[in-house]
Amino acid sequence: MTFTAHQKRQAAQAQYADGLELCPARQLLEAISSKWVTLVMLELADGELRHSELRRRIPGASQKMLTSTLRSLERDGLVTRLLTLSVPVRTDYELTPLGHSLLGVIHGLKEWADENMGQVEEARGGYDRARESAG
Amino acid sequence: MTFTAHQKRQAAQAQYADGLELCPARQLLEAISSKWVTLVMLELADGELRHSELRRRIPGASQKMLTSTLRSLERDGLVTRLLTLSVPVRTDYELTPLGHSLLGVIHGLKEWADENMGQVEEARGGYDRARESAG
DNA sequence: CTGTATCCTCTAAGATACTG
DNA sequence: CAGTATCTTAGAGGATACAG
What we know:
homodimer
């Protein structure tokens, strides 16, 4: 059995892609770039909150997305879920120590963004204007 | 004209979502979480590289994705593109100062990931095992 | 109140083929 | 060598209805 150059390239790409999935930094990026993750974590920074309170504070998130975000945070060991079996039910969410430590990284991102996204904004404007006039 | 509670909620969500798009931190996350952005930037950390060299170093990226990643980095003012009109054509890519500064944030992410993704990995395993046995 | 189950849409990412 | 143009697909995100 022999392979064409094309097949070899495909194989290399597939292998590289698999390796990427295992890269810790890649996984972290995928975890925190999901739309509501950082917002939820920021809200929980000052202490535990009920599900309904989170919903009130992050009105953009649908109920489904909020729950699924919280589930993935819980699964990743970044948030703990406390269920109180009263009627009606009550659930509180709280950051774990690991979650708090991740919050540090998120603040780093936020800081850079606040300081530099203006420049990025400008660059985008310039780039777009150049294409517009040039075609 | 009056509105139902449902319509009001919808409006609030839409408005909140629009605000989110404008949030610098959100934009930053969207910019760097695109699949090949960080890899390209890391490769360019030590100096300029040709298109073909980048392609060789990041075999997982298709030609299309590499070009489109480089375009968006250029648009954001993070990378400069130097075109040399020889035959065949030659293009070199290099980080801008802004790009280098962003690299610092990326290293922060990477560091946290290297130190802590093991714990996340463990938490995931525990969570999944618990569901498996409990159902 | 909290959470699940469906269905739907939109787009990032990829495969492929072509041009200067 | 570098880049563009199409077509396809998988999955994130969302709307809605229902359940414990």
